Amino acid sequence: MSDKQDFDLIIIGAGSGGVRLARMSAAKGARVAVVESRYLGGTCVNVGCVPKKLFVYGSHAGEDIEDAAGYGWNVPDGQVTFDWTRLVANKNAEIERLNGIYGRMLENAGVTVIEGTASLADDHTVVVGDRSFTSKHITVATGSWPVVPEVPGKECVLTSNEMFYLPQLPRQAVVWGGGYIAVEFAGILAGLGVETTLLYRGELFLRGFDDDVREFTAAEMRKKGINLRFEVNIESIESEDAHYAVELTDGSRLNTGLVMAATGRRALVDGLGLEQLGVQMSASGHVVVDDQFQTAVPSITALGDVIGTPQLTPVALAQGMVLSRRLFGDGKGEMDYSSIPTAVFCQPNIGTVGLTEAEAREAGHKLRIYRSEFKPMKHTLSGRDERALMKLIVDDESDRVLGAHMVGPDAGEITQGIAVAIKAGATKAQFDSTMGIHPTSAEEFVTMRNPVA
């Protein structure tokens, strides 16, 4: 291999982690290229968190219009209409704007963008079409892709990728899955007037979240008309005159206009040729790396969804910064995956950070549990039957707050601030001594005085 490579770093994948790594590394003087086969910004910007949140806003607007009547606004019956194609078009325009921003950020940073599908000829050579590029370092940041189980009629199923570009809304829809993507899309569809059924094979959806949160969310979703069916799976799907007949494992049958699978995601490594070069893959199909994102091949690193860490944009961003310091900076810095805050943009929202009650008990903590359930102030006049839940998990010996969980309006916004306190090791006494902002839902986190367990 020649000492004169084309680049110091080639990144395969222009998602959140790849773009952050590219910009940070270029700022340190490295010659950087990014190879992308689809779209700048990756899943999050194009078919993930950004367009999904826009759809959540759109689907919730109908409730806001209804609630306005309680505040004196006249909302004539039958005169409020919804245009799905306009929402999709406006979303598309925003995504295109963001794509342009990502492109300009890379260009301004001096990063070379190479369009096309990449494969590895050897541990220092990336092939894109009929071109080859050499680099001292190669980082795989190709993200993940939806998985649909092998059932008869699988070809009839849509994934989250296609849902963002539906030409029209169906009258009925089946959402298949029990993770945050399934729960969010069930809320989006129901909020837009679609008769929605969510199917999940387990006893209760949102596995890994606090049990109180899971149960409370199920009850609130049912209030909104979503048909939740647990301990059932899809046996087969048949197309019938632009509709679908869905046979279930309990012997029942659903007729619907759409079947969406949110049944998991896999690492997107097809065609890269990683294993042939000696890169190890886990049993789940993820790229195996050490704490410094190093694969078994010295010149190849990987980050983001492709390595199986929490599939969250801020995680990939943080990984990009740590890896950039390792490759081109002072070599310091490491990832801390404890107390990662996250939100589920179902309706009402979920916000959570730290340990669940079950996790804390399993870890051996003696606990105090604080729990509050109430009607948000907005709905005292709107009349809507929606409630909020807040919960704190406290270690009884140290008084440290181990986890905070919320279901309610703006839960994600509220939890971000609580996450700082928990990351800093705040105690329940410090929560109690913090003045609340009145009147807000958030103040409940600093006014819960009596443990329920």
- Rg result: 24 Å
Low-confidence stretches: none
CATH superfamily of the largest domain: FAD/NAD(P)-binding domain
- What fold name goes in the CATH topology slot of the largest domain? FAD/NAD(P)-binding domain
Please, how many domains?
3
Which helices and strands, and how do they pair?
Layout: E1 7-12, H1 16-27, E2 32-36, H2 42-47, H3 49-67, H4 84-108, E3 112-115, E4 118-122, E5 125-128, E6 131-140, E7 144-146, H5 160-163, E8 172-176, H6 180-191, E9 195-200, H7 211-223, E10 227-230, E11 234-240, E12 243-248, E13 253-256, E14 259-261, E15 265-267, E16 300-302, H8 313-328, E17 342-344, E18 350-354, H9 357-362, E19 367-374, H10 379-382, E20 388-395, E21 401-407, H11 411-423, H12 428-433
Parallel strand pairs: 1-2, 1-6, 2-3, 6-16, 8-9, 8-14, 9-10
Antiparallel strand pairs: 4-5, 5-6, 7-15, 11-12, 12-13, 17-18, 18-21, 19-20, 20-21
Features:
453 residues, alpha/beta, FAD/NAD(P)-binding domain, Enolase-like, domain 1, 3 domains, seven-stranded mixed β-sheet, globular, Pyr_nuc-diS_OxRdtase, FAD, flavoprotein
Report on the structure:
The protein is an alpha/beta fold and 453 residues long. The chain folds into three domains: 7-145 and 266-328, FAD/NAD(P)-binding domain; 154-263, 3-Layer(bba) Sandwich (FAD/NAD(P)-binding domain), CATH 3.50.50.60; 342-446, Enolase-like, domain 1 (2-Layer Sandwich), CATH 3.30.390.30. It has helices at 16-27, 42-47, 49-67, 84-108, 160-163, 180-191, 211-223, 313-328, 357-362, 379-382, 411-423, 428-433, and strands at residues 7-12, 32-36, 112-115, 118-122, 125-128, 131-140, 144-146, 172-176, 195-200, 227-230, 234-240, 243-248, 253-256, 259-261, 265-267, 300-302, 342-344, 350-354, 367-374, 388-395, 401-407. The radius of gyration is 24 Å and the shape is globular.
